[in-house]
UniProtKB/TrEMBL annotation:
<dbReference type="GO" id="GO:0016779">
    <property type="term" value="F:nucleotidyltransferase activity"/>
</dbReference>
<keyword id="KW-0548">Nucleotidyltransferase</keyword>
<keyword id="KW-0808">Transferase</keyword>
<keyword id="KW-0119">Carbohydrate metabolism</keyword>
<dbReference type="InterPro" id="IPR001937">
    <property type="entry name" value="GalP_UDPtransf1"/>
</dbReference>
<dbReference type="InterPro" id="IPR036265">
    <property type="entry name" value="HIT-like_sf"/>
</dbReference>
<feature type="domain" description="Galactose-1-phosphate uridyl transferase N-terminal">
    <location>
        <begin position="3"/>
        <end position="176"/>
    </location>
</feature>
<dbReference type="InterPro" id="IPR053177">
    <property type="entry name" value="ADP-glucose_phosphorylase"/>
</dbReference>
<protein>
    <submittedName>
        <fullName>Galactose-1-phosphate uridylyltransferase</fullName>
    </submittedName>
</protein>
<dbReference type="InterPro" id="IPR005849">
    <property type="entry name" value="GalP_Utransf_N"/>
</dbReference>
<dbReference type="Pfam" id="PF01087">
    <property type="entry name" value="GalP_UDP_transf"/>
</dbReference>
Amino acid sequence: MPELRRDPIVGRWVIIATERARRPSDVGREPAPRQGALCPFCAGNEDKTPREVYVAGRPPFAPANAPGWKVRVVPNRFPALKIEGDLDRQAEGIYDRMNGIGAHEVIIESPDHDKALEDLPVADLTEVLFAFKARVLDLRNDLRFKYLLLFKNHGHLAGASLEHAHSQLIALPVVPRQVVEEIEGARRHYDLKERCIFCDIVGQERKDRSRLVFENEEFVVFAPWAPRSPFETWIVPKRHESNYEVEPKERLGQCAQALGTTLRRLRAALGNPAYNFIVHSNPLRDPPSHSYHWHIEVMPALTQVAGFEWGSGFHINPVPPEDAAEFLRKVAG
């Protein structure tokens, strides 16, 4: 059983992922990406994954766990957290621990092994984003879960172990400290000015335009004012909404256009970089928030975190966001 342990100084929770246990002598040896083997995510190999928990695109009355799908969601075969069991919170002296209860799922974005997320038509990419929503709506019914993190690792340097296009979700029994800090920062701004900080940022970026990359009817894409790494890019809805899962499918279609355009421009500008993206949303148990605003952060894996960053919490970024945005505006997307 995985375990959650709380750092008693800063309140940070750490997952001790026993399901992914490696021998101490193996730590530090970087595993090579899996290539050339039978891909469990390809159409026709549905029996190589756990049974699906969500599917889109398969014809009505077709058998489950069979070909014919566009998007498929399955439990992760090597989960960081386990869905079965109780939290069983315990103290060990001054330390706090609990069972590693949660959900860990894989969203297989296409049946085609060679098709990247950004190459999908807008309608198919919309189905991927709608699958995100459907899984949030389902998993939030489990009262053990407090936060659900949706994310994508693309490329070996960004943490992907399989080439086939996929993203992941992890449902957590606690709200991560980083999320709490972001929500509290937004709340402080709202308490002071009675406005959402994200709405203010969207307004300023649309007016200033030096960091603007793309916009459509519903979403704006820009390089943030203080990016942690080169070409960090945010995708933010123009309308105020704190929870990703309440977005209707038509607006998720606009989000799909913005996300696909962003990823294609990053690929054209940087030569298919490894990247992560993370959906930032309101915690599952919280009411809708006037101060917080859901959004997507895209982080190309172009720099490494080293001693200064670990020791200070500062990030060193050699590319000004204004230059990155100008470069992205000029490439085809």
